[in-house]
Amino acid sequence: MAGIEFDRQIFAPGAETQRKPAPQAIGLILLVLALGLVGFVGYKLFTQVTQNNALASANSQVEQLQQQLVESQKRVDELEKHRRAVRVEAPAPVVTAPPVAKNPAPAKPVYRIAAASALPPQPKPAAATTPIPAPSTNSNNAAIQSELNANHEAWQATTDRLADVVGVVGQQQNELSETREAVNQLLSQTRRQAVSFELQKGNSRMPVGPVTLQLKSVDSKAQRYSVCVFFEDRCTELKDRALNEVVVFVVTKNSTPLELVATKVLRDQIVGYLEVPLAKQ
Predict the structure, then answer these.
(1) Residues near 143 by Cβ (< 8 Å), separated by ≥ 6?
(2) Are 258 and 250 in contact (CB under 8 A)?
(3) E strand or H helix at 224, and its extent?
(4) Is 247 helix (H, G, I), strand (E, B) or coil?
(5) What pTM was computed for the model?
(6) Is the predicted pLDDT of residue 118 greater than 70, yes or no?
(7) Which of 45, 121, 250, 275 can bridge 192 by disulfide, Cβ–Cβ 3.0-4.6 Å?
(8) Could you tell me which of 254, 271, 253 has the C-alpha nearest to residue 262?
């Protein structure tokens, strides 16, 4: 056991390797501190720059306000000078006092002494009273009566004129009512409704509106036809009518005329429409 020797160099590299990580940790700490210092310095610089910009803008605004204040002060001074100049140019009116006339000294009274008269004092005659003439009432009454008569005549003439106007207005109203009735009648006649139909040749009848139609004959080559219109079992024959011809007829006396139009003429059939007036509402 005493003769065994150990090589100490084998254990030396292990100790060196254990001591190497310490400088790396210190370097990292220094790097972090340096980065923090750089960030702090940058933040300080940024805040300083922003403060300087804000101060510069505030200073520029203050300078603009000062310039505006100086300009307004100049304008006020110019207006004040102009107002003073106008006051100085307009001279004040000179009021001259009227000359005072000197009153002459009053004359001294002169007293005279006369002897008393021996005659007795005589009474003064009484003032004569003149009679006041009475107003002419008759002339005033005649003037008032004539004025009343004139007013009555004017009122009567106005009344007669109003009566004439009322009569003319009543006549015009009657004419207007008659014209309105005629217009309504014309409108009722012009307002129509088209009722379409298709008639077959034969003995069959077809009710169309207020009447009944029956086709008598058809000529497809010449495009002509004949129709019998029944109203209250009485036939009104429309002979030899052409295509698209407007056939106007009256079924009863004092009734609105009807219009019949054939739009197609076929071999044993016609197609068309009947225009009838609309019923009154």
Answers:
(1) none
(2) yes
(3) strand 224-230
(4) strand
(5) 0.34
(6) no
(7) 275
(8) 271
